[in-house]
Amino acid sequence: MYDVAIIGAGPAGASAALFSAKAGKKTIIFExxxxxxxxxxxxxxxxxxxxxxxALLELGKKQAVKQGAEVVNRxxxxxxxxxxxxxxxxxxxxxxxxxxxxxxxxxITDLASKAxxxxxxxxxxxxxxxxxxxxDGKTNIDGIWAAGTIAGVSVHTIITAGHGASVAINxxxxxxGERYVDHDVLKL
Length: 188
Ligand SMILES: Cc1cc2nc3c(=O)[nH]c(=O)nc-3n(C[C@H](O)[C@H](O)[C@H](O)COP(=O)(O)OP(=O)(O)OC[C@H]3O[C@@H](n4cnc5c(N)ncnc54)[C@H](O)[C@@H]3O)c2cc1C
Prior knowledge:
FAD/NAD(P)-binding domain; seven-stranded mixed sheet; two-stranded antiparallel ribbon
C-alpha cells in the first residue's frame, strides 16, 4: 500500500513526488510522456537560467527518484475508491493500492472525470476544463487531490511546480496529523 500515488510527472507531479518521498511517504508517480512542457523553452523559471522543457522534466523526475519515489511509465486508466484507499489500474491492467491520489495530469481531464471528480470550466488561457478543488487542493472525493494546470493555477512551470509542492505538503500534514515543513540546513 502506497501512501501517495501521483498521476503525472510534469512540474506539478514531480515536485509533489519530491516532497512526498523526502517526507518518508511511500510514493509512486505514473507518467505517459504527454507533458506540455516537452514543447517549452523556459526562460522564466526562478533560479534556472534558461532550460529546455524536456531537460526540466528529466531533472524533476531525477530529484523525486533521488528521494525515493518510484516512477512508472504507464497510462492510468482507472481510479477506484476502496473501503481503505484506492486501487489504481494501468492500461496493462496492473493494479496498485494507495491511501491518497494526487491528480497532476496537466490539461488532460478524462481520468479525473472517469473517477467521478467534479470538473469545472478553466479560467487560464487555452485551458478549457479543470478539476474543482478547495484551497488545499482537495477534490469532491475524499482522498483524491489535484495540483498544477488541472487544478486551475496559472500555466507556468514555477507556479505548477510550486502548487504541486504546496498540495503535497497539505497531504503530508494530513498523514502526519500536524503541519509539515521541509528545511535542510547549509553545513558551514
Ligand atoms: C509550447 C509551450 C511553451 C511553454 N513555455 C513555457 C515557458 O516558457 N515558461 C513556463 O513557465 N511555462 C511554459 N509552458 C507551460 C508549462 O509547460 C506548464 O506550466 C507546465 O508544464 C504544466 O505542468 P503540469 O505538471 O500541470 O502539467 P504537464 O506538464 O502537462 O504534466 C502532465 C503529466 O500528466 C501525465 N498524464 C496525463 N494523464 C495521464 C494518465 N492517465 N496516466 C499517466 N500519466 C498521465 C502526462 O504524461 C504529463 O506528464 C509552455 C507550455 C507550452 C505548451
